[in-house]
Amino acid sequence: MDAYHARYPFLDAARDAVSDADVDLGALVRSDDAAVERGKERVTRALTEGTVESERRVSTRTELLSYPIARVLVSLLDTPGAIEKYAAIEATTAHTRVVEELTSGQNGRDTRADRPFSLETVLAELGLDADVQRSDRSKRNETAAYRVSVGRYLRLAPDGEGWTLVRRELADGSVSVSQSELLELLRKAIEKRVLDGLPFEVPTEIADPLRPAVREIRSRLVGVEYPQNIDRFEPEAFPDCIAALLESAKNGEIDRLQRFTLVSFLSGIGLSSEAIAAVCGIDDDRFAHATERLADGAYPPPSFETLRAYGICDGNHPDHDHPLGAYAARLSSASDEHD
């Protein structure tokens, strides 16, 4: 196990390092408090702060072993949207590290004395080496430094007009991209790698010792105390971000993470699963199933801090930490005005 493995734990080389060390995951979660604590921090910070970086120094071994533990924790968490968010943040953190490696020196910074960083190595480990080639322009330091096969490009390109094929130089079945654009495609490839296999069934002997950590992560997602005895449905009093989610749901434009936020909020104000489906105007079996599961109160609504980390809320709420608190305050203010 070395620093390279710890910085990029999703790569095959890191997985092989753990396997070669003959680490038993069941024994690890029962005996290695440092790795479990770091795994818990990894998931919590990903979901609430948008990074998996640690706030303290940890050993290379602890950092590497925290990754498989984090995968177990996010599988046990069973919170809709959490897995996608976790994978996206692991990928974003890795993307930042790759950029740091590439810009720290002409040949990249060594993560270990005998392991110089190589973009080509990372591409190969992610199975992208056959689809990415350096362009002749790279020798002349021109912008289009790489060519990516069309099929791979289409699978990894983010949304946005600038990424459409009509805006690209296309020749011989490949697309020209700059190095920064290649790194953005790499970020998406890493996200897909992290998502692969998640969630998975966790054996009881591994799950049971981690239950306290899962409860703590769920508590952090809520983050603050919030009113739990609201029984009024008045959409005009919803916080703006919740009102926007309701409108998106009615238009059929809501993803899993947004749906989790909206349904848990509506459940928090006392709506049944049937009422939530009616309010959202969605007649879909998958939505109905998810609503029934979320509307039992097992999944508290996220705080404003968490929603900002999710990219769902971009407003300031200086007087309230939680959407339900803001909603309750608006209801109270409306009642006072009425009186």
> What is the CATH-assigned architecture of the largest domain?
Up-down Bundle
- Overall, the morphology is globular
Low-confidence stretches: 106-114
What do the pLDDT scores average to?
83
The SSE string, one letter per element, is: HHHHHHEEHEEHEEHHHHHHHH
Provide the number of structural domains.
2
Sheet having the most strands: 4 strands, antiparallel
Structural class call reads mainly alpha
In the CATH scheme, what's the topology name of the largest domain?
A: Transcription Elongation Factor S-II, Chain A
Number of helices: 16
Describe the model.
The chain is mostly helical and 339 residues long. Helices cover 57% and strands 5% of the residues. It has 16 helices and six strands. The protein has helices spanning 3-7, 12-20, 25-31, 33-49, 60-77, 82-103, 119-125, 150-156, 179-195, 204-222, 240-250, 256-268, 273-280, 285-294, 304-310, 323-338; strands at 110-112, 115-116, 132-134, 146-149, 170-171, 174-177. The chain has a four-stranded antiparallel β-sheet with strand order 3-4-6-5. It has a two-stranded antiparallel sheet with strand order 1-2. The termini are far apart. Mean pLDDT is 83; it is low at 106-114.
SSE layout:
Elements: H1 3-7, H2 12-20, H3 25-31, H4 33-49, H5 60-77, H6 82-103, E1 110-112, E2 115-116, H7 119-125, E3 132-134, E4 146-149, H8 150-156, E5 170-171, E6 174-177, H9 179-195, H10 204-222, H11 240-250, H12 256-268, H13 273-280, H14 285-294, H15 304-310, H16 323-338
Helix pairs in contact: 3-10, 4-5, 4-10, 4-15, 5-10, 6-9, 11-12, 13-14
